[in-house]
Design a protein that fits this description.
four-stranded antiparallel β-sheet, 8 helices, 42% helix, binds calcium ion
């Protein structure tokens, strides 16, 4: 997934760039910096980025104009950094093709969460990737190990399979029939309440660990989905 982790940070304030680099590198991303819009456009023309973090307030060409220019040729996800209260920038940013925005001053956790959410949407990971990580929850698939709020959660094999299946397709809603078929297999001769029971147990175990149950969402009249929640 190397091509999915290079992030361009466009910001003229060196302190803010350093801060962004620190947060993002800590998460394992590769950070490239540009201190003005012109340099940013040159880099975008030459290199592939998985995501761009773009400050609105830049000397010369402002971030909104840079966003518009990038959008002429690239579909790369863009997060705009705006100052508090500049709602007009946010609205204009979305109109010009920004995917999300973060208001300064922001918490590192919020920024990293938004980066991850956008990357998950734009770079779907191949099936069977090793470790799935979400706010408060990680699923190490080779080890079949689940950690919630830093505590290992002991699951039955089917509870694990169900959680992994839903989490690996986060955002998608599945009916109970589909889950029975995908997780228990075609041959399973059982009742749809099996799914409900397993979801209930999973939620209880995650709640006891302190985090993670909030990702398991009931979609009334349909079934269940794993939703990434902050
Ligand atoms: Ca700035």
């Amino acid at each position: 997934m190397a091509e999915c982790v290079k992030i361009l940070v466009v910001e003229d304030e060196a302190r803010m760039r350093d801060l962004l680099r620190l947060y993002l590198e800590r998460e394992g991303y590769w950070v490239v910096e540009a201190d003005n819009g012109k340099k940013a456009l040159e880099k975008v023309a030459r290199e592939e980025f998985a995501l761009i973090i773009l400050d609105v307030m830049l000397p010369g060409m402002d971030g909104l104009k840079v966003c518009q220019e990038i959008r002429r040729t690239h579909a790369v996800p863009i997060i705009m950094l705006t100052a508090r209260g500049e709602e007009i920038d946010r609205i204009t940013g979305f109109e010009l093709g920004a995917d999300d925005y973060v208001v300064k001053p922001f918490s590192p956790r919020e920024l990293v969460m938004r980066v991850k959410a956008l990357l998950r949407r734009s770079c779907p990971q191949p099936a069977g990737r090793d470790v799935l990580t979400f706010p408060g929850l990680s699923i190490d698939h080779p080890a079949r190990r689940v950690e919630a709020a830093g505590h290992e959660v002991s699951l039955t094999p089917k509870e694990y399979d169900l959680l992994y299946f839903l989490a690996s397709q986060a955002g998608r809603v599945f009916t109970r029939e589909q889950l029975l078929e995908k997780v228990w297999g075609y041959d399973f001769y059982g009742d749809q309440r099996t799914v409900d029971t397993h979801i209930k147990n999973l939620r209880e175990k995650l709640k006891r660990a302190g985090r993670g149950a909030e990702h398991l969402v009931t979609v009334w009249g349909v079934g269940y989905k794993f939703e990434v929640k902050a």
